[in-house]
Design brief:
The protein has a single domain, classed as Methylamine Dehydrogenase, Chain H (7 Propeller), CATH 2.130.10. The chain contains one helix and 30 strands. It is mostly beta strands. Strands 1, 23, 24, 25, 26 and 30 form a six-stranded antiparallel β-sheet that branches. Strands 2-29-28-27 form a four-stranded antiparallel β-sheet, with no helix packed on it. The protein has a four-stranded antiparallel β-sheet with strand order 3-4-5-6, with no helix packed on it. It is 1% helix and 53% strand. The N terminus and C terminus are likely disordered. The longest helix is centred in the C-terminal third of the chain and has 5 residues. A hairpin with a 2-residue loop joins β25 and β26.
Length: 363
């Protein structure tokens, strides 16, 4: 879908806090759209492309070259990769529900379910422990998977309280797992499990109608995601694990979500909202040194990109992967940091533009 680019006035002094970036598009043979989701410290990116028939196919990408992941099914998506090159995501055959999948040197491995028909693998640490969500007899449960132990069921928050769903979205090197859980007709609650725990703990904010989600955790134990604390609009947040959180802001738009954090504490995600004409607007952000930065402000001119919309992953070298618009079409990207601006250049920034992507959308 073609889009137009809108510029909204904003303070741009935050751009002085971060380096500029070069940008590369993620191309994949046969895909009309591409999506970048994860990357490791070697700069290997994973994601998926969608062909003209609407079928998704997982791929890896490095230095401008994309490679289809070994086939396990008719459709697939890849979400995260560790420094050993192990990749996790999901794959499905025909009209069947998708199953959590691991791609490594042994090829593609179906990780199974917990008795239901579906599962998703959302993250993997350097030890090869996979975290995700799997269908059970009722609803879905959070799980971890290891090569030796298979799939371990962490259940949901209240096993005897209705039809529930739960899943892990992130895991760090110590085995701290974070994610979300919810019951039908109730808000999402951020949840976690510490190493040695056998069940989930609720780390949502106070209040019956408070909603939150934990998306990632670094080795320092910093958990990121989003929370609305009953306000109606979710904001990207650092979740403290005790029901309290730090609101990271939204660059003047209605909502924001944090998707990943690296070991330096840099956080990436998206901001979104609607303009007065009913167009959906949004931008990818980097939260660094206590300030949220619009990544569109840090891109070089003349790249052909309309803008970057969502940032899904950041590695320990500061490279960022996500989704943007190129020539009005959806395309994955990887950003690589360049030199930090000189002090004189930073002082000259003053007021700038908050680049957001403008698309007609239903509320």
């Amino acid at each position: 879908m073609k889009t137009t680019l809108t510029l909204l006035a904003s303070l741009a002094t935050s751009a002085a806090l971060a380096a500029g970036y070069s940008i590369q598009g993620l191309d994949f043979t046969g895909a009309v759209e591409t999506y970048g989701y994860g990357l490791n410290d070697h700069g290997v990116v994973v994601g998926y492309g969608i062909d003209a028939g609407g079928v998704s196919r997982a791929f890896s990408w490095q230095n401008g070259v994309s490679t289809a992941l070994s086939p396990l099914a008719t459709s697939s998506e890849a979400y995260r990769i560790n420094n050993k090159g192990q990749i996790v995501g999901k794959a499905a055959t025909g009209a069947a529900a998708p199953h959590a999948t691991l791609w490594d040197t042994d090829g593609a491995t179906d990780l199974g379910t917990l008795g239901g028909d579906h599962s998703f693998a959302n993250d993997i640490n350097e030890a090869g422990v996979v975290a995700g969500s799997a269908g059970a007899e009722k609803g879905s449960h959070a799980f971890i998977w290891t090569k030796d132990g298979g799939m371990v069921d962490y259940g949901n928050l209240n096993p005897d309280d209705g039809f529930q769903h739960a899943g892990f979205n992130g895991i760090n090197e110590s085995g701290l797992m974070v994610g979300t859980a919810y019951r039908l007709f109730t808000p999402y609650h951020a949840a976690m499990a510490k190493p040695g725990d056998k069940a989930l703990s609720d780390i949502a904010g106070p209040g019956r109608y408070s909603a939150s989600m934990a998306m990632a955790v670094n080795d320092a134990g910093t958990i990121v995601g989003w929370s609305n604390n009953g306000s109606g609009n979710g904001h990207a947040a650092i979740l403290n694990g005790d029901g309290t959180y730090l609101d990271l802001g939204s660059l003047g738009l209605d909502e924001s979500r944090a998707f990943d954090i690296n070991e330096a504490g840099d956080i990436v995600g998206e901001v979104s909202g609607y303009d007065d004409e009913g167009f959906a607007v949004g931008a990818a952000f980097l939260y660094t040194k206590g300030t949220m930065v619009n990544l569109n402000d840090l891109l070089p001119t003349g790249t052909g990109w309309d803008g970057v919309l969502e940032a899904h992953g950041i590695n320990n070298k500061g490279q960022i992967v996500g989704v943007g618009l190129y020539g009005g079409e959806i395309r994955g990207f990887v950003l690589t940091p360049e030199a930090v601006p000189e002090p004189a250049s930073m002082a000259a920034l003053g007021y700038g533009a908050l680049a957001v992507l403008r698309r007609r959308a239903r509320r």
